[in-house]
Amino acid sequence: MLDQPFLSVTIELLDGLGTVAFAVSGALVGVRKNFDLFGILFLAFVVAVAGGMMRDVLIGATPPAAMHDIHYFVIAMASGLATFFWYPRIANRTRLLQFLDAIGLALFAVVGTQKAIEYGVNPVMSALMGMLTGIGGGMIRDVLSGDVPFVLRADLYALAALAAGSVVAVGTLVGIPSIYAVLAGTGLCLFLRFMAIYRRWRAPLPPSAAIRRPEAGD
Amino acid sequence: MLDQPFLSVTIELLDGLGTVAFAVSGALVGVRKNFDLFGILFLAFVVAVAGGMMRDVLIGATPPAAMHDIHYFVIAMASGLATFFWYPRIANRTRLLQFLDAIGLALFAVVGTQKAIEYGVNPVMSALMGMLTGIGGGMIRDVLSGDVPFVLRADLYALAALAAGSVVAVGTLVGIPSIYAVLAGTGLCLFLRFMAIYRRWRAPLPPSAAIRRPEAGD
Amino acid sequence: MLDQPFLSVTIELLDGLGTVAFAVSGALVGVRKNFDLFGILFLAFVVAVAGGMMRDVLIGATPPAAMHDIHYFVIAMASGLATFFWYPRIANRTRLLQFLDAIGLALFAVVGTQKAIEYGVNPVMSALMGMLTGIGGGMIRDVLSGDVPFVLRADLYALAALAAGSVVAVGTLVGIPSIYAVLAGTGLCLFLRFMAIYRRWRAPLPPSAAIRRPEAGD
Predict the structure, then answer these.
(1) Which pairs with CB-CB distance under 8 Å and at least 24 residues apart come from A181-188?
(2) Rounded Cα distance, A123 and A171, in Å
(3) Is A33 on the interface with B (CB under 8 A)?
(4) Rounded to an integer, what distance in angstroms lies between the CA atom of residue B49 and that of residue A169?
């Protein structure tokens, strides 16, 4: 894992902040979809832990970390309750939430990739597992609330996570000290997210988009 | 696990009855959504086993119990076929189905929590795993049939399961004989479900519900 | 597993062709739903591996084979990119795609059933795991793109996979050499799919379909 206690503490702190942003994103969807208090807290928790749980199940690290470690639960409950009671005030902090969410995405992707590598997963799949850690919670949130997962359409969200994971996977492969790989991966993810938010960078659409037929059987 | 053979047999019986209700709830959705025979049986089976399978995967009890034990399969097929052939007659037994469903929910939650505790999961997550055992099948049913899971919005359904799981988890923690914890948890779950059905008890909605903006970015 | 190297190579080849068809089916949905390049590749990959991953998680074969073996990833990326750039041309090859897809379905079901049996799963659940291997990717594709999984309503798709799995499971049970069970299962699956496509064979609808009430509570 990480060889430096300071880095380790910083990462846990950022991971906590990211978890807050993830949980709030779940709770906001719950409020907007008219879920009750339970549904709101449930979505908050799901966004916070589902990505990591899917990763752990897939890499064979069962039971998943979130089963032992209730700090995700506590953070999710607190974030969900805050959103429940102060919905408009929290929902209006769009920029702050996007910023924290980008941090969460970067951290989850970086730490998720490292964990997959530790479990002997090959580098390509490790980077994908890092991405899954970052985007999995949001995907489940969207599916449960009846939406097509927004990560499939927009905003370099998943790609930013995958970029972070790839940097860590390549870094590990070529033997760079993990602190540099972590910093570079996190930085790249944040950069891509901010370019997506402020400059509207996007992944390309299919060249056939203009001439596509509305529905083609299958 | 349970220390008394009589309790153990009673629980298996109630578990079977609950499984019938769960499978029927899946088959009813299948009929209403115009699925064919296969789709109807598939949904019946999914509701009966998906919650327990998710729990087992998450607590590391793989392969899940339902992989060895085909009585869930048999119950689900019989319930699904009955619903297929006698749809209106079965669908009209709303009260009976709600009663059996409440029993299934309570039993799945109680037994699910106990199993998680046996596997060394901490009490908070064990109660949540009990809840997942109870509500997981219905959530997958709703997602597969294109609905937002109703447990996220209504009826104290998940909360009743969580209450049952919490009673068992706390009971185990303070060392109460499991028979009392099981009975108390089951009773509380049934009580909450009946209050939800007959007295329309609900979990609270966000205070901001009245002033909520229709869509707020993100 | 398989006792004959020639059969083994043939199966790997057909498995690869089937994976192409599965990945293309994911990418086509992505293009039609206006996903960007990332979303398209993601769906292509999901259809190719999700069924096998779910099977492996459920039978306790973690980490799933797809975590070690990146040839699914490579096939999915190539198929997804081809679909991205040449959408109309590929989408128009309906018959070829249906043919390859039927091969993929049969192979995934047969190989999935064999793997479950090897892991000690009972025959009934092994056949179901074979079916899940075949249909799981398509189900996740449909859920992620906001549709009700088409396997729940149509075309003997899942039933053909289940038939293939059942033949293999029964064949193993009665001690038939695996090559015959594999050939018979594959043949039956292909036959059922072609009858569904060309003769419109269907699973039965509930007898109550005509007299069904539009919505019946619960």
Answers:
(1) A182/A2, A182/A7, A182/A11, A182/A110, A182/A114, A185/A106, A185/A109, A185/A110, A185/A113, A186/A106, A186/A107, A186/A110, A188/A160, A188/A163, A188/A164
(2) 10
(3) yes
(4) 37
Question: Is the model's pLDDT at C67 over the cut of 60?
Answer: yes
pLDDT tens-place string over residues C107-149: 999 999 999 999 999 999 999 999 999 999 999 999 999 888 8
Contacts of C68 in chain A (CB under 8 A): 121-122, 125
At C218 the pLDDT is 39
- For residue A215, the model assigns a pLDDT of 43
Q: Which of B58, B158, B159 is closest, CB to CB, to A67?
A: B58
The token pair at B166 is: 């919490």
Residue A55 has pLDDT above 50, yes or no: yes
The segments of chain B whose pLDDT lies below 50 read 1-2, 211-218
Rounded to the nearest 10 degrees, how much is the dihedral formed by the CA atoms of B43, B44, B46, B51?
Answer: 130
Residues A175-210 have pLDDT tens digits of 998 889 999 999 999 999 999 989 888 888 888 665
Question: Which among B31, B35, B37 has the least Cβ separation from residue C208?
Answer: B31
The nearest alpha carbon in chain A to C92 belongs to A216
Contact between A63 and B62 using a beta-carbon 8 Å cutoff: no
d(CA A157, CA B20): 43
Q: How many CB atoms lie within 10 A of CB A56?
A: 26
Contact C84 A152 (CB under 8 A): no
The backbone torsions φ and ψ at residue C123, rounded to the nearest 5 degrees and listed phi first, read -60, -40
Distance (Å, rounded) from C-alpha A72 to C-alpha A21? 12
- Closest by Cβ to A152, choosing from C35, C68, C70: C35
Task: Dig out the tokens for C183 from the structure.
Answer: 């050939």
C84/A215 touch (CB, cutoff 8 Å), yes or no: no
Phi, psi angle pair for A87, to nearest 5°? -50, -55
Give how far A143 is from chain C: nearest CA, Å.
Answer: 7
Does any CB of chain A come closer than 8 Å to the CB of residue B124? yes
B63 upstream amide cis, omega within 30 of 0: yes
N residues, chain A? 218
Best residue in A36, A57, A105, A141 for a mutation probing chain B (most B CBs within 10 Å): A36
> Of A59, A60, A124, which is closest to C70 when you measure between CB atoms?
A124
What single-letter amino acid sits at A119? Answer: Y
CA C199, C202, C205, C211: dihedral to nearest 10 degrees? Answer: -20
Write down the pLDDT at residue A212: 47
Tokens standing for residue C157: 């798709």
CB C57 within 8 A of CB C35: no
**Strand, coil or helix: A18:** helix
Chain C contact for B60 (CB, 8 A cutoff): no
Yes or no, beta carbons of C87 and A217 under 8 Å apart? no
Segment C38-61, tens digit of pLDDT:
999 999 999 999 999 999 999 999
